[in-house]
Design a protein that fits this description.
The protein is mainly alpha-helical. It has helices at about 5-20, 45-55, 55-80, 85-90, 110-115, 140-145, 160-170, and strands at about 40-45, 100, 100-105, 150, 155, 160.
Length: about 190
């Protein structure tokens, strides 16, 4: 098991424990529900490399095509400093790793996807009701599990998944307004 797989497994165990301790916060997420796949998703470079190692050459070619469209659609927001989630959702720019309503890299999805759960009415997941949905929130204890995965020396090492994929697959190096490098506050 790779270090990233091990860290992801630790995150999954932590989250499962939180839900087991609070059954009233049971997620309403199900297979085939992909409203969250139009949320801004953040990942570390190591997670992106882990994802790319999982994809077949055919899948990589498909993702490259999707990335060109995704970049064009999201450029106005990505040029801003930390685009707001509501504005991002309104772009209707789903994750380039989504295929036929399913995550093509589910076993290797990044932390940002692993820790995102809706727990109220599933009908609240779609626009325009999305801002009324309740989402799981985890205590700062999760940061102990994430040390080295999304933080190094107390600093975020994550960026938008689409930006990182474009850098790796298309060689599109550009500053991202979504890059997180601020110091974590406990």
């Amino acid at each position: 098991m790779t270090e990233i797989s091990s860290q992801h497994a630790a995150v999954d165990r932590y989250i499962a424990g939180v839900f087991a301790a609070s059954p009233e916060k049971k997620p309403c997420c199900t297979i085939g529900c992909f409203a969250c796949c139009s949320e801004p998703v953040y990942a570390s470079e190591a997670e992106v490399i882990h994802i790319l190692e999982y994809l077949t050459p055919e899948q990589i070619a498909e993702v490259k095509i999707k990335l060109v469209d995704w970049l064009a659609k999201t450029k106005p927001l990505m040029d801003q400093n930390m685009p707001g989630a509501v504005a991002y959702r309104q772009l209707k720019a789903p994750c380039v790793l989504l295929k036929n309503g399913l995550c093509s890299v589910y076993p290797r999805r990044p932390y940002g996807c692993r820790a995102w759960f809706a727990f109220q009415n599933p009908g609240n997941c779609d626009l325009p009701y999305r801002e009324h949905q309740g989402y799981a929130q985890f205590s700062n204890k999760i940061f102990e599990v994430l040390n080295g995965l999304v933080f190094i020396n107390g600093k975020h090492i994550i960026d938008h998944l689409g930006i990182l994929l474009a850098e790796k697959l298309l060689g599109r190096k550009r500053p991202s307004g979504s890059r997180l490098t601020d110091t974590r506050n406990d």
